[in-house]
Amino acid sequence: xxxxxxxxxxxxxxxxxxxxxxxxxxxxxxxxxxxxxxxxxxxxxxxxxxxxxxxxxxxxxxxxxxxxxxxxxxxxxxxxxxxxxxxxxxxxxxxxxxxxxxxxxxxxxxxxxxxxxxxxxxxxxxxxxxxxxxxxxxxxxxxxxxxxxxxxxxxxxxxxxxxxxxxxxxxxxxxxxxxxxxxxxxxxxxxxxxxxxxxxxxxxxxxxxxxxxxxxxxxxxxxxxxxxxxxxxxxxxxxxxxxxxxxxxxxxxxxxxxxxxxxxxxxxxxxxxxxxxxxxxxxxxxxxxxxxxxxxxxxxxxxxxxxxxxxxxxxxxxxxxxxxxxxxxxxxxxxxxxxxxxxxxxxxxxxxxxxxxxxxxxxxxxxxxxxxxxxxxxxxxxxxxxxxxxxxxxxxxxxxxxxxxxxxxxxxxxxxxx
Length: 418
Hints:
The chain contains 13 helices and 15 strands. By secondary structure, it is α/β, with parallel strands linked by helices. It has 2 domains: 204 residues, Rossmann fold, CATH 3.40.50.450; 144 residues, Rossmann fold. A 5-stranded mixed β-sheet has the order 3-2-1-4-5, sandwiched between helices. The protein has a 4-stranded parallel β-sheet with strand order 7-8-6-11, with helices on both faces. Helix 1 packs parallel to helix 12.
């Protein structure tokens, strides 16, 4: 019986630890050469499968693959491309089958967030709807931490650590200058509809830092916000504001909305920080500084959470093991057992329960006034940012890996994606 090859692809916004999952998938598959042939990676995600641009990971040394564990971003390239329904664009699915057949691919590992889970679920149905056997396993990843069922998502812990550390350091700067200069520092973080990343700013209160958090889950009330900040400044002389890009008014309009949308149809956000800062300037006259963490927060591998790196690897390994057990249309998950000491186990969820479902901050994690986090939230967050997993350094800079990414010969006619 001819061994089936595996296809691995990265999707959506990359993270500081997504390559750790890639490392795990490839290393685990290599340990099971009796059951899995080669591991091909999609150049730029699922797009690589559609246009038959497959990377032969067997051309990479064991040392190079191991180096992925400490290298940020997507080693094979990612994409924002969501497959339409089978009824809407049957030709795309037929093309995937053609490519899978041409290269004897029987395992599909898709490393991404909610939209990627949806794509993975659709592909898992190919055997049933189009008569081609393919085992599709979703490898969770998202800095937004908004996938359901799993306790947390690889990528989130490192972003939370980055935001907590960076905001803490900036707050010491502001505290030094507030008597005659800056009184307010605003940092805008990712998260879209869920306030998990913004919540990390709440960890600063253990250092007696005056922090105000603006969550997507709490409708923005300008009057209450300004009064809250004014009270903080009067008491401490300064205030740190962490605003989620998904913060919105009662009518649903985002503070940060640009009027444009990404490939998945989501509103493109970015710009809440200057909106909030100028709002305070006009109302209270405070001198301010603001920053948008943007790509810095999700690519900061140098300060990644050790817990996050470990879980990213474990879930990649678990994905391959699930496939070897014959599973299909599933996603490995983190199941928390206890907060202190922090204990968890690897579980599994059906993709039908994951695709197109967002997990928001529970109200019990947000303080009564809506501008901070509760002790329950703190107990949730603290384990996820624990530990340091520094990359190797050379000449003062992280020594990251760049793969050769050697493609395999194409066997099919060109295909144009729409």
